[in-house]
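Support request, please re-run this one:
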Amino acid sequence: MAKVKNWINSIWQKGIVPAVDFIWEHPWVFISLFIVFFAGYVLIHSWQLFFAVLGSIGTFMMGIFAWQQHKLERTKYKLEIRPEQKMVYDNLIQLIAIATIDEQYNRIEVNHLISQAQEAAYFLPKQDNFDEYIKIISINLAELDEKRKSEIKLVDAGRNDEAATMKEEITVLENWFIQQNAVVKEKFEKYLRIEE
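Re-run finished. Output below.
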């Protein structure tokens, strides 16, 4: 224990006291040491600030890069599913054209168009109810076909009053199909556009 006390005393007497005396006698040394340490402190912290700002700029640039990648991937996905979406659009336009123009259409071709549209509707959002819309088109097309056949039978049977009533119902359905051109174009506008 005495050795430790002697050692601390010797450090105090030989090291600290002379250093304090020297600084007291030469204050410019103390001031210059303070400036050097303060400058070192500021330099170290300014480098930290520099690297912090540099890191923030890098993070911001990476964020912009990630956003651009997201947009690119979204556009790529839209391009990949676009043929299926376009197929639904084209098939619906064809079905509407068949309903409004062709009174004697091929039922197999129509069924093929409907089934293709229903399969490709998987690539369209569920909330827009394209499956239901395709079903409505299909049901109304079948109803129109039946009414046209009934009208021909009524005319052949000489029941002209009933045939005229049937013709009015056919006209109502044909007008509905004509209006569906605009509805289909409106429904598909955002899906057929690539840029957003």
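The chain has a mean pLDDT of 75. The chain is about 90% helix and 0% strand.
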